Structures are given as C-alpha cells and as structure tokens.
Amino acid sequence: MKISEIKKLLNAKVICGEELAENDVYSACGSDMMSDVLAYVKDQAVLLTGLVNSQVIRTAEMMDMVCIVFVRSKQPTEEMIELAKDSGIVILTTDLRLYEACGQLYVNGLVGNGRTEV
Amino acid sequence: MSESLIFHFDVDGEDFTSAGQASVQVKKNLRRLGISPEIIRQVSIAMYEGEINMVIHAHGGSADVVVNEDKIEIILADKGPGIADIELAMQEGYSTAPDSVRSLGFGAGMGLPNMKRYTDEMTIESKVGEGTTIKMVVKL
Fold first, then answer.
1. Distance, in angstroms, between A1 CA and closest chain B CA?
2. What is the C-alpha to C-alpha distance for residues A110 and B83, in angstroms, rounded to an integer?
3. Do A55 and B16 touch (CB under 8 A)?
4. pLDDT tens for residues B22-76?
5. Which residues in chain A touch residue B49, judged by CB atoms under 8 angstroms apart?
6. Which residues in chain B have Cβ-Cβ distances shorter than 8 Å to A39?
7. CATH number for domain A3-107, candidates 3.40.50.2000, 3.20.20.70, 3.40.1390.20, 3.40.50.300
8. CA of A43 to nearest chain B CA: how many angstroms apart?
9. How confident is the model at residue A117 (pLDDT cuts 50, 70, 90)?
C-alpha cells in the first residue's frame, strides 16, 4: 500500500515527507509502547501511535520504518519533524483514534506482519 | 578491514528527549562502512534499548561499539543501581521503571528481552549499588 493511499484512507494531513508519498508500505503496527514496536515490526512499515515525543521518531528510525501516523489529531513538535526529515520518514496526522485508524488500513489490505492483501 | 574500529559514546542520563542519539550515530557509521541493513538494525535496536535503559535507570553511562571483521560488539556500562535479579529482569513484561516512563512509551519490560532478541550473544554483569555492564555480540 502506498503512503498516499494511507493518507486518503485516514483522511490524514501530511506534516513532512510529501515527496515520499508514493513509496510502498508492507506492514503496520499500532502501539503507544515503543518497546513493543521494537520487538515485532517487520520491513518498510508504518507506525500508528498516540504517543508524541522524539523517541517515536527514533524508534521508527531504528526499525527502518517509512511512515508515522499520529492519531487523535496529535501534533508532532518542530524537533520531531526535523528528526523525521533527517531520517526520510513521512509524518501524517489523522483525527481518527488508534483502533479506527488501524482498522481502516487492515480492511483495505494492510494486514500487518509483512503480509499485504489487496 | 583487519583492525577493529571503535566508536565511543557518553550517554547523558538527564535528558530523555535526547536518549537514542548515540544509536542514531552508530546506525549512520555502520551504514558508511557498508554493513548490511539487517545487521545494522539488530545492532542499533539493541543499543537503543540499552541507551534508554541507562537513561531511565542509571543516570546515563557509556556505550562502546567495536566493529571487527567477523562481529560487532556493543558494550554498555553504567554506575547505576545495578540489577538485583537478572533472571527476573530478563522476563518479558517485568519492569521496575516508574509510571512516568511508561507514559513516554517505555518501561514495558521489553528492553532487556529485545536486546537479547536482536543479538547473538549477551552477557550481563551487575552488582547492586555499583552498576551494570552489558556486552552484546552480533555476528557478521
């Protein structure tokens, strides 16, 4: 699934990395606990989270994740946006809650664990 | 690459926001050396979890990454409170981190298990009241 499609499905705003929106995402993870993210995520993933601090960006960077979606209209700080730009990570924000945002992506084919069915 | 390369970092224990900077730097350094992305990810996640631990529990410490021909070693040392029961600390979900840390996205009791998960060898030496040294090896 392309990042641009995630944006459309979640009615999301692009905070940074618009130029990377045609990149593909193969798996997804929804969590506010970064250690859980560090334990389970696979390749070229998108992270959906309600947690807003610099460690979210660093966790995504460590996992080579390509996109972060902040749910419930949460806004990243300038410092976080700069970190994300440095690492080539797309940041999106959506009004949806974590459960709904994950559900939207799941029913549209991004099933997690590296398996994509469209 | 016949000689080993050593990267040394001091981990600032006062600032949670900057925790992980050393791991980001290691990731960049290893990329420049042409190490495979999978190995880089293993090393940087293990080190990142260790770095976060040092900030949460031990007021910082030091991190050394040694790149050899056949393996990468990560040595994390602190003068923190030490780990009383290492076996218990290795259990997924066991944590002594305060709730304030959990609201920051850590303290789920996954740090040490994740460090073990992503490395080929891991040894913990710890003395209560003196500190902890963790050595990890990722084979190339």
1. 22
2. 41
3. yes
4. 999 999 999 999 999 999 999 999 999 999 999 999 999 999 999 999 999 999 9
5. 35, 38
6. 110, 113-114, 117
7. 3.40.1390.20
8. 10
9. very low
Domains of chain B: 5-139 (3.30.565.10)
CA nearest neighbour of A91 among A104, A78, A102, A100: A78
In the block, which residue shows the tokens 């290691």?
B26
> Which residue do the tokens 């030091």 mark?
B62
Min CA distance, A76 vs chain B (Å)?
13
Of B17, B37, B49, the CB nearest to A64: B37
How far, in Å, are A36, A63, A95, B121 from residue A77 at the CA level?
23, 21, 17, 38
What value does the mean pLDDT of chain A take? Answer: 92
CB pairs under 8 A between A and B: 67
Q: CB–CB of B48 and A39 under 8 A? A: no
- A35, A53, A54 ranked by CB distance to B111: nearest: A35
Q: CA B76 → CA A113, B45, B55, distances in Å?
A: 31, 13, 12
Q: What whole-number distance in Å separates Cα of residue B104 and Cα of residue B97?
A: 11
CA B12 to chain A, closest CA, distance in angstroms equals 15
